[in-house]
Amino acid sequence: MAQPSLLERLGILADAAKYDASCASSGSIKRSSAGGKGMGSTDKGMGICHAYTPDGRCISLLKILLTNHCIFDCHYCINRKSSNVRRARFTPQEVADLTLNFYRRNYIEGLFLSSGIIKSASHTMEQLIETACILREEHDFRGYIHLKTIPEAEPDLVARAGLFADRVSINVELPTDAGLTRLAPDKSARQIEGAMGNLGHAIAEAKDAKKRFRHAPRFAPAGQSTQMIVGADGASDTDIVAKASVLYGSYDLRRVYYSAFSPIPDASAVLPLKRPPLIREHRLYQSDWLMRFYGFKPQEVMQAAEADGNLPLDIDPKLAWALKFRDYFPVDVNRATREQLLRVPGLGVRAVNQIIAARRHRTLRLDDVAKLTVSVKRIRPFICALDWRPTMLTDRADLRTLLAPKQTQLELFG
Questions:
Q1: Does residue 235 form part of some domain?
Q2: Which domain holds residue 376?
Q3: What are the beta bridge partners of residue 111?
Q4: Which cofactor does it need (predicted)?
Q5: How many Å separate Cα 213 from the centre of its chain?
Q6: Which of 336, 322, 298, 284 is nearest to 402 (CA)?
Q7: Which of 195, 225, 255 is the last residue in one of the domains?
Q8: Which pLDDT belongs to residue 229?
Q9: How far is the C-alpha of 102 from the C-alpha of 108, rounded, in Å?
Q10: What is the pLDDT of residues 157-212, one digit of tens each?
Q11: How far apart are CA 224 and CA 230, in angstroms?
């Protein structure tokens, strides 16, 4: 069979990489190319302009697999060894050349590289590291690099990836050990967690060394992340939230990504026939933010779930929690603590900070709060202000119906 052209392989391997959601770049360091040194700057060097987001940078990445050949047979994976898909493979040099050429054309500012497992996990990991090494050491590439590491590889190889990559990640794949055993028989939950723990220790040691030694080498400065597939097994949202809280607490992850299961061609009989609603993935991201930025404990997020253990789809988890614990409300916007205000549905972190700043100078009315939010209708049942008390509104039996977003049919041509 004739070898596919470079362009054909790029199409195959870029399409195969689309199922990995964990490729955000926030939190990385900024390398400068000022003075004519290096290339691929992610900072404002001569002739380069970037727009920065509050949590880092917004940069475009070349997102591909080194190969979609794989010796593993994970049921949910389109690239599993029993899958009838067209296969392709790049060499490390080819990926490096593609990255540099795309950068020179101003298409990208970084690389996200993953791979199926060929020959062995360690052999594949060596190929991924070689790609990053070519970019960093031979071409002085200073753009963003995210390497998807392989937990089954030798620990020294996994650790070495952090010397070249801004971010490293290891996918836990599924939220429960039983689900992983059933759908990914070649993978081990303990092995994945051990690799994540080793990376976490290496990142922490590198940060400590950087504080004490000026020229200590950087090691994965953007930290590590992971991804969980939602809806491929019977795990509920409470199972997923519990797993995410353990991952954040045990391995100091930068992010946990959630990816709704998508049916694949020639799927195994053990997989569901339909994908879960995409809104379920969205609700899990909202619950993730509640734990990371709003002070909610994992158990409190789980309390927002329905009887089946899943978060409601028609309302967000913060509102679901508030409706279940109405005795917590209303809170006085002029007296409540920051932690209490963050529990109010419809109030974000920025709005709460603005309320706290504004009330130092005057007593707030409902109209003052309305100027800081998108919809004061959602907030009124849960707050008190100088000229507003919700009286019986908070305890109305139909409050959920009143506050749930209205379902509307979108038009293609409005």
A1: no
A2: 325-403
A3: 62, 145
A4: [4Fe-4S] cluster
A5: 31
A6: 322
A7: 225
A8: 94
A9: 6
A10: 998 999 999 999 999 999 999 999 999 999 999 999 999 999 999 999 999 998 89
A11: 20
Examine the fold and report which residue of 189, 206, 225 is the final residue of a domain before the chain moves on: 225
Closest residue by Cα to residue 206 from 216, 196, 198: 216
> Are residue 30 and residue 138 in the same domain, yes or no?
yes
Which of 18-32, 309-323, 398-412 is predicted most confidently?
309-323
Which stretches within 217-365 are classed as H helix?
Answer: 237-251, 278-293, 298-303, 317-324, 338-341, 349-358
d(CA 99, CA 92): 11
Count of structural domains within the chain: 2
Q: Are 133 and 101 in contact (CB under 8 A)?
A: no
Query: Which DSSP category does 310 fall into?
Result: P
Confidence of residue 27 (pLDDT cuts 50, 70, 90): very low
Distance CA 290, CA 303 (A): 13
Evaluate whether 394 touches 329 at the Cβ level (below 8 Å). Answer: yes
Clarify whether residues 203 and 340 are in a common domain: no
Whether residue 382 contacts residue 322, with contact meaning beta carbons closer than 8 Å, is answered with yes
Please indicate, yes or no, if residue 395 is contained in any of the structural domains: yes
Q: The whole model's pTM is what? A: 0.86
